[in-house]
Amino acid sequence: MCCDTNMDDKRPRDNAEIHFDMEAIKGMQFFDPHVHMTSRTTDDYQAMADAGIKAIIEPAFWLGQPRTGVATFRDYYSSLVGWERFRAAQFGIKHYCTIGLNSREANNEALAEEVMEILPLFIYKEGVVGIG
Amino acid sequence: MKSLSHIEPAPYTYDQNKVVELFTDIIKKRSAPEAWEWLEQNVPRGTDNKIFNSLFVQLPRKTGRTIIQVNEEEATQLNAILPLFSITNWPLDRLCRVWLLLHLATADRPCYITAIDNLFITAEMNEQVALYSALPLLAYPEYWRMRCAEGIRSNIGDVLEAIMYCNPYPSLYLDEAAWNQMILKAFFTEKKVHEIIGLDERANGELANILTDYAHERWAARRSVNPQLWRCIGRFTNQSNLGDLKRVFNSQNETEREAAALALNDAGYAPAKSLLSENPTLKTAVETGRLTWNTLAQKTSNFL
Description:
- The structure holds two protein chains of two kinds.
- Chain A has a four-stranded parallel β-sheet.
- In chain A, strand 3, helix 4 and strand 4 form a beta-alpha-beta unit.
- Chain A has four helices and four strands; from the N terminus they run βαβααβαβ.
- In chain A, 33% of the residues lie in helices and 15% in strands.
- Chain B has helices spanning 16-30, 33-42, 49-63, 72-81, 92-101, 109-121, 125-133, 145-151, 157-164, 169-173, 176-188, 205-220, 242-249, 254-266, 270-277, 280-287, 293-300.
- In chain B, helix 1 packs antiparallel against helix 4 (72-81), helix 2 packs antiparallel against helix 3 and helix 5 packs across helix 7 (125-133).
- Chains A and B meet through helix 2, helix 3 and helix 4 of A and helix 3 and helix 7 of B.
């Protein structure tokens, strides 16, 4: 599941180093349907482009630190349809996203209601392919 | 006699009806019939904000993004109303969005401003481009100063270019600090500075100091300096920056020498004129108009 912090699951089982063979995927084109680029560097974009990734979907997610105001949600959604799309385009990658309120953040009901109010402003934006 | 303070400022400072008429004509001629039909049916006459927002957002899906080439007659008509403003090479959706904005009701100032502010704060990349392109056409132009200054903080190239290139708003409305920030950012982000309206008219002493410092930083890092930078310094040549111009005037690079010659010619400072006389060939080129900032711009567009 997204955002879990159990590192044991992420380690190679036998501690053997994994060498990825770029030759095996040479010339192939990929679509990554679930990746959070907000938390990734420019180098990651470069590596993705080098590996043949042509398009991605970035689902809106929970940042970890609880957001306390609707304005930070608005800026976050704006960055998904604005800055992140631009950043991806610099590497020839098409950026799509889904817009929504993560259930982990929905328990602040008053804030969740405010977020639901602004969602319609974003759901028809270019590049938005889903609502959650 | 009534106090003048009760008179509301005119919402538009140009002939808005004529621009709407001209844009309507340009759009109609370049749109697919079904796209034009959709636009004509849906253009709100300043009614519901939610409908307006949704039209603004979905518009490119209907109009497409064909690049617009404006003919001479259209450009002349536009510039008779808005000097130097250009829509050439805009995608059709950008023009249609700007045209749509011109249909918002303006009589209620707070309502109008809130509607447009809300478009700005939720805008995706292409919407930002359209909104910043529209600055010189919006009602209550003095209100958008802060918005324009805010846009200059963007790092999205197309957004910066929408503010900087062929857009008369910044030179008409930005205060000196914001203007200077825009010019420095234009050099810093390697923009075609010669496309900035008001580059010469709004040059100022403070900007000349800022750009001189910037040139020193570039030199210290052994990096090149865009020769157009000296265009903003020429008129403010003085004892402290003459040495810099002398360095550029003696450069190994021809374009740099030409830029220095133009800057020295712009200077009112006598020692600058004497320096220019040391190279009669360049002096003549400048004086006869063979060498101008515009001819230099053609050579410098790839000098970065």
